[in-house]
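User: Could you go from structure to sequence for me? I need the amino acid at each position, not a summary. Structure tokens:
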């Protein structure tokens, strides 16, 4: 049974998902707005262009999100989106790109469990863990 992370934004979902697509790869397979669906006339004018559902597909997995209704957003806490790059260089590139405009909570560095591990909160408020640990040799 698949488990997916669903993020909430304060009107910045489209910009955040554009960044995530550009940095992580994958493709945005959904970006639905209230103005795109029948009956959208009932939604407030400021909500018509907000994102009511977005989905970024990454190697068969999904990261999903939406903008919160006005006044209902709260900054995420108590979790982090974990991303496992396929090389140390990719970990460094991704970490630097996501950290731009955000805050680093643990610099990317070698640890006893990983060749590269770091934590940050990106400029859109999403907490991330970037963890590159090469596969253990079979023997």
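Assistant: Here is the amino acid at each position, in order:
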């Amino acid at each position: 049974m698949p488990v997916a992370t669903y993020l909430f934004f304060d009107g910045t979902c489209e910009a955040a998902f554009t960044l995530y697509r550009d940095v992580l790869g994958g493709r945005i397979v959904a970006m639905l707005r209230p103005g795109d669906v029948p009956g959208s006339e009932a939604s407030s004018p400021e909500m018509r262009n907000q994102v009511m559902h977005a989905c970024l597909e990454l190697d068969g997995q999904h990261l999903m999100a939406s903008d919160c209704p006005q006044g209902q957003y709260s900054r995420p806490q108590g979790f982090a989106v974990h991303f496992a790059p396929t090389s140390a260089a990719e970990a460094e590139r991704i970490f630097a790109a996501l950290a731009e405009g955000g805050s680093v909570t643990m610099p990317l560095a070698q640890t006893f469990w990983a060749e590269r591990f770091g934590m940050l909160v990106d400029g859109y408020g999403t907490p991330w863990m970037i963890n590159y640990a090469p596969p253990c040799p079979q023997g």
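One structural detail worth keeping in mind: The beta strands are 5-9, 27-32, 53-58, 61-67, 81-83, 103-109, 116-121, 127-132.
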